[in-house]
Structures are given as structure tokens and as C-alpha cells.
From TrEMBL, chain A:
Pathway: Lipid metabolism; fatty acid biosynthesis. PANTHER family: VERY-LONG-CHAIN (3R)-3-HYDROXYACYL-COA DEHYDRATASE, VERY-LONG-CHAIN (3R)-3-HYDROXYACYL-COA DEHYDRATASE 2. Its EC number is 4.2.1.134. Belongs to the very long-chain fatty acids dehydratase HACD family. Keywords: Endoplasmic reticulum, Fatty acid biosynthesis, Fatty acid metabolism, Lipid biosynthesis, Lipid metabolism, Lyase, Membrane, Transmembrane, Transmembrane helix. GO terms for biological process: fatty acid elongation; sphingolipid biosynthetic process; very long-chain fatty acid biosynthetic process. It holds the Pfam family PTPLA. This is Very-long-chain (3R)-3-hydroxyacyl-CoA dehydratase.
From TrEMBL, chain B:
It comes from the Eukaryota. Residues 3-59 form the TECR-like N-terminal domain. InterPro entries: 3-oxo-5_a-steroid_4-DH_C (IPR001104), SRD5A/TECR (IPR039357), TECR-like_N (IPR049127). One of its GO terms (molecular function) is oxidoreductase activity, acting on the CH-CH group of donors. GO terms for biological process: very long-chain fatty acid biosynthetic process. It comes from Oryzias sinensis. Residues 134-287 form the 3-oxo-5-alpha-steroid 4-dehydrogenase C-terminal domain. Keywords: Endoplasmic reticulum, Membrane, Oxidoreductase, Transmembrane, Transmembrane helix. It is a multi-pass membrane protein. One of its GO terms (cellular component) is membrane. This is Trans-2,3-enoyl-CoA reductase-like 2a.
Amino acid sequence: MSAAAQGTSKAAHGDVAPKKKKGPGALATAYLVIYNVVMTAGWLVIAVGLVRAYVARGSYHGLYYSIEKPLKFFQTGALLEILHCAVGIVPSSVVLTGFQVLSRVFLTWAVTHSVREVQSEDSVLLFVTAWTVTEIIRYSFYTFSLLNHLPYLIKWARYTFFILLYPMGVTGELLTIYAALPYVQKTGLYSVTLPNKYNFSFDYYTFLILIMISYIPRKSIGRLHFPLQKSAIRKTGYTG
Amino acid sequence: KVRSNIHNVKSVFVFIYSDPRWYPARQSLTLDPKGKFLRDEEILQSLPVGTTATMYFKDLGPQLGWTTVFFAENIGPLLIYLLFYFRVPYIYSDRCAFTSSPHKVVTMACVCHTFHYLKRLIETIFVHRFSHGSMPLRTIVKNCLYYWGFSAWLAYYINHPLYTPPSYGEVQVHYAMVIFAICEMGNFSIHLSLSHLRGDRSRGRRFPVPSKNPFTWLFFFVSCPNHTYEVGTWVSFSIMTQCLPVAVFTVLGFIQMTVWAKGKHRAYVREFKDYPAVRVAIIPLIL
């Protein structure tokens, strides 16, 4: 393929006029408020489910099963957020949001759901707990922001809890993928070998290892996101 | 009549700041800090300023000319594919090193692939007339990773000891090769035509039109037949090798080329009031 010869240095940094940030209209805002309230409620259901199951059983073990369905439902529902960005009612990057949501959905379905043996691992509880607390705070943050009435407590919680929750979630996720590896290798899950009619192969085991390695650059960038945002907010004096 | 332009300003800039690092291609001059950069050809007299003008400088980072870029992007796939074809050690298992595949189609695929990239290299040197521009280093690295990576990925499977030849055998391969050859000739004809258009500035700016060469008759229907033929090349190569990675590469290429073709088409329609209405961007009557 030949790139169209684009004329003078056009491919360089986009020297475009600053994009006017269009806020969502009234209808879109109403929809988003409903969406965020529903999500907050959903993750609260998961949180309550976890606590009740712990109290009932008296141990941390196997709590995944008690919240498996709402977890799958509400985490998968987050795919809508990609649509929100694409349509423009949320001023975030489609690519960034896409990566985040797909990463979560991947872990929920392609690892935890697909490899039954890891479902009783404690690492699953670790990331589920991290996700639950994070999402409850995040969705209530968005709800209040949309209603232009953000209590300082929520904003504080979001940026502060992140410091603990982010590494907690990453650790849980990595340990879970690691735990899944031997079973994937043994059963050849989601893998295609040669020879075949379409001359293609895919080794899910190697793919998972590559995913684990990709956590290093991906999560380091993510780890910096909030502290950077926080200092930017502090500098500009924006109080939301 | 004074005809100084932005390029002159950039050259003076280098002279004044005595810094050869900031060669003109790397400079971005704008009249407004957030405005669009000024093109090198813009005549100073025509700028919307008074007797003095304030310009804002931005360093675009290291730039490479188009010829260098195209060369780098195309030499990689050419050589990388050959490494796989000759089964250089450490790619496949040791006992397969330097062996050759028993299937004729594998050799034909190598010939086609190599021909395709040789043709592109030759066109880069002798045919294409690039406008006075360049590309930042980071984009080139990204592009090279893409082209080189994909050629390694598809070469791996085609030249694999466990490669399975196409389901319909010789018939499939031969038909695909014919289409491949037609598309390559078509693509070359279009590049020649575009190159002549660019060289022939005496008649002012014109859009490309069909000529006596039948391959250029695709201009009746599309604005960018070079991209149309290129898609055809890769589709035929996918059929010839019946290899999924090649198909994936074809689809991605098709998407990218459609984006380019649509942009070019829009530019043509905007610039030429008499642009043929029946033409679309890349797929006749459809896209």
C-alpha cells in the first residue's frame, strides 16, 4: 500500500484550532445520569453480595460464585461507555476508554469465566473487591458531576482510594492470569494449531503471557493518570 | 515582483539561529500560536498581515523525506519475507533450516511478494514525484513496525513446513496469479499517469483522467484507482495462499486505503468544479 503523498509536513503534530468541547444536551445528560445511577447500584449489589456471602460462610474462599452473575452483567454493561465516547456525549477518548473496558471484560470472560479452576482463587477476590470499590466511587462521582453537585468527599475518595485500589486490582488480575496458565496449556483452550486449511495458528497460553508483560507499560501509564490529573486540577483551581 | 515565500523565511531562520538542526522541513511557522502551519509555497505578499508579521515557531522533531520513508517501509518486507522463504535457522525447527517447501504455490507466492515490493522500490526511486514534504521520525518507526511486522507474520505461515496449499489447488492459484498480475500492471499504470500529471504543471492543476492505456480506464469510475488495484493485489494474494494472516492484512489495508481515497476524492471534488459526478473514491459505484 502506498501512503498518499500528503503534501508539506501534514502528518506532523496536529496544528488544528482547539476543538470546542460540546457538552451533552439535556436528553443525553438525563440518560447518562440514569446510566451512572444504575451502574452505582449494580456495583453496590455486588459489594453487598460479597459481604453477605463472607458473613454467611465465615471465610474469604469462593466468594466469586455468590456475585458471578451481577459481576458479569455490570462489567459487560460498561462496554456502553465506549459508545458514549464514540457518540460524543462523554468527552473521553474512545481508544483509552476502549482499552480500559476491554481489559476488564477480557479478564471477566476470557480468563475468569473460561478457566473454571481459577474461580476459587483468592486473587479473583482481590481484583473483584478492588473493582467493586473503585466502580462504586467512580459511578457516583460521575452521577454527581453530571448533576453539578459533586461532594468533596467523593472526589477525595476517588483520588485517594485509587492509590490503594489500583495496585490491588493489578495484582489480583496478574495473579489470576498466572493461575490460569497451566490449565490453558494443558487443555489448549482457545488455541489453533497447524496444519489447517487457513494456515493460521494462535496460542492462547503465549497470548496470556504477552498480556501479563503488557501490564508493565500499560499499568504504569494508568498509575500516573490520576496523580497527574490531580495536580492539574490543583494548578488550575478547578473544583468541579 | 517580489515572490519570497515561507520556505525563504525558513532558510533565513536557519541562518540567523546558526543551528543546522532546525532545517526547514523541521520548522513549523504559524501566524497564530494555535493556528495551522503555513505552507512552504505561500507567498509572503499574500499573507493577511501588515508591513510586519509575527510568526510562531514550532520544532516538529526530526523529519525524513518521503523517498527515505518509502524506501524504509518497503525494503523491510522484501528482505524479511525472503528470510522466511529460505527458512533461515531459528525460525522453524532446526531440521527445516534452509530446506524448501515441496509446494509450487509457496515459490510462486515468494515471487509475487518479492515482485510487489521490488516494483514499489523502483517506483519510489524513478516514478513517484513527492511534494516538498516530510514525515516525523516517530510516524516512520510506527509505519515500519506495521509493514515489517505483518510481512513477518504472513511469511511465517506461508513458508511454514506445515503449510496447507489452497483447497482448489492449481486452479485457485493460477486464477489468483492472473488477477495479481493485472492489478500490479494496473497499479503501475496509475502511478505513471499520476506522475505525468504532476510533471506537467504547464497546464495548471488538473485532476487525473483515463488515457489510451486500458488500465487507466478505471479513472472513469474511481478517484484513486491505484488504491483499488492495490486492494485487488492483496485480495488475489490472499486467495493464492489461502492464508488467514494475509486476509487480515488485506482487510486492514483496505480500511486504511479507503480512508486515504475518500480524503483524496473530497479534495478533488472541492477543487474542481467540473469533477466527474459518476466517480467515487475507491470501489466503482459503491465506495
